[in-house]
């Protein structure tokens, strides 16, 4: 059996990158994971049995990294310097400095990685950090392919576009070298599409419509929540208590509907898209993620309801943390330790990544031409 790929996982979070490696079926050994977030490291250890290194990545040296002799680095650095809602200070933001430092160590190393995988928010592709990164890759003989992809393009009803950069050190090369140096917005090398033309050769709205048609309905990602238990269970005291506890946790209060009803993104179990869940979901309503209407009538269109008071007649709730994890394509055995509160669970999931998107990208990165 061939030796496993030796991996370093930077900004490891709650393990989305590692789950992606597993889903991709890559024969790999994670030598070390790095994350400064104490709660994220609690979750990582709970699921993988190993606690990531919690020191400041910025303090690592080329000599220390050489000791690992890693084949590949997987990085999901902080996104705040590049978000539309942020100050967009890019590399001038202190939260970008550790990533820049890690990149600048590559030319100093005796045993640099052969491959790198970088994930970040849309907006990174126009940043000076990305320009600096590509300059380092060019000087150190890496070829790159870049992508902006969403789970919608992989059949998941979840609108979460993200930037990805795949880099290979020569003489390694990609299966489709014709895509080198390009920024693509369709998963051309990974999915067998009848039309494998690039996004710039078709209208974005056409591509979005095509993605939605192939998506599963949201109901495939939902828990059978106690809020939807059959009326026959109404006499079961335990079921009634469970239902009451659930509604207390996840129902949207009428006071929030009064204030934010017009700003809510409301979806049904049969919907084929929902908005990205941010780390502020469950704390705030506006712009943090979709809310689920569990109406008896799935054909009812909320858009046609003229008054906010009409929303109060529709059972409206938050997606549960497990459901958000499902939309991130985390496996069923993923779970949170008891010390992680519900708000912390949402925050950690909001900072994570989509396994359904990252796994085929990693599979493509680690594959070699015949």
Automatic annotation (TrEMBL):
<dbReference type="Pfam" id="PF00145">
    <property type="entry name" value="DNA_methylase"/>
</dbReference>
<keyword id="KW-0808">Transferase</keyword>
<feature type="active site">
    <location>
        <position position="79"/>
    </location>
</feature>
<dbReference type="GO" id="GO:0005634">
    <property type="term" value="C:nucleus"/>
</dbReference>
<comment type="similarity">
    <text>Belongs to the class I-like SAM-binding methyltransferase superfamily. C5-methyltransferase family.</text>
</comment>
<dbReference type="InterPro" id="IPR050750">
    <property type="entry name" value="C5-MTase"/>
</dbReference>
<dbReference type="InterPro" id="IPR001525">
    <property type="entry name" value="C5_MeTfrase"/>
</dbReference>
<dbReference type="GO" id="GO:0032259">
    <property type="term" value="P:methylation"/>
</dbReference>
<dbReference type="InterPro" id="IPR029063">
    <property type="entry name" value="SAM-dependent_MTases_sf"/>
</dbReference>
<keyword id="KW-0489">Methyltransferase</keyword>
<dbReference type="GO" id="GO:0008168">
    <property type="term" value="F:methyltransferase activity"/>
</dbReference>
<protein>
    <recommendedName>
        <fullName>tRNA (Cytosine(38)-C(5))-methyltransferase</fullName>
    </recommendedName>
</protein>
<keyword id="KW-0949">S-adenosyl-L-methionine</keyword>
């Amino acid at each position: 059996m061939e030796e496993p790929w030796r991996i370093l996982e930077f900004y490891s979070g709650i393990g989305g990158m590692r789950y992606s490696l597993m889903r991709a079926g890559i024969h790999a050994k994670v030598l070390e994971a790095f994350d400064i977030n104490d709660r994220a490291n609690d979750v990582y250890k709970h699921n993988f049995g190993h606690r990531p290194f919690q020191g400041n990545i910025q303090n690592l040296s080329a000599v220390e990294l050489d000791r690992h002799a890693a084949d590949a680095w997987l990085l999901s650095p902080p996104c705040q310097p590049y978000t539309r809602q942020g100050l967009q200070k890019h590399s001038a933001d202190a939260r970008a400095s550790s990533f820049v430092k890690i990149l600048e160590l590559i030319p100093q190393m005796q045993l640099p990685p052969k491959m790198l995988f970088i994930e970040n928010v849309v907006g990174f592709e126009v940043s000076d950090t990305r320009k600096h990164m590509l300059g380092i890759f060019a000087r150190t003989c890496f070829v790159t392919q870049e992508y902006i992809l969403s789970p919608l393009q992989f059949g998941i009803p979840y609108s979460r576009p993200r930037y990805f950069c795949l880099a290979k050190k020569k003489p390694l090369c990609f299966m489709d070298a014709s895509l080198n140096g390009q920024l693509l917005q369709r998963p051309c090398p990974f999915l067998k599409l009848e039309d494998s033309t690039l996004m710039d050769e078709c209208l974005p709205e056409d591509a979005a419509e095509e993605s939605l048609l192939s998506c599963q309905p949201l109901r495939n990602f939902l828990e059978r929540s106690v809020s939807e238990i059959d009326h026959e269970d109404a006499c079961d005291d335990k079921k009634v208590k469970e239902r009451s506890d659930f509604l207390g946790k996840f129902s949207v209060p009428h006071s929030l509907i009064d204030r934010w009803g017009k700003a809510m993104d409301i979806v049904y179990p049969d919907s084929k898209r929902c908005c990205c869940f941010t780390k502020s979901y469950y704390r705030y309503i506006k712009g943090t993620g979709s809310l689920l209407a569990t109406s008896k009538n799935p054909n009812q269109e909320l858009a046609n309801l003229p008054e906010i008071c009409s929303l109060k007649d529709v059972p409206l709730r938050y997606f549960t943390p497990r459901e958000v994890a499902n939309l991130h394509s985390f496996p069923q055995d993923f779970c949170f330790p008891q010390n992680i509160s519900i708000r912390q669970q949402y925050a950690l999931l909001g900072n994570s990544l989509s396994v359904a998107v990252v796994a085929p990208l990693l599979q493509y990165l680690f594959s070699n031409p015949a």
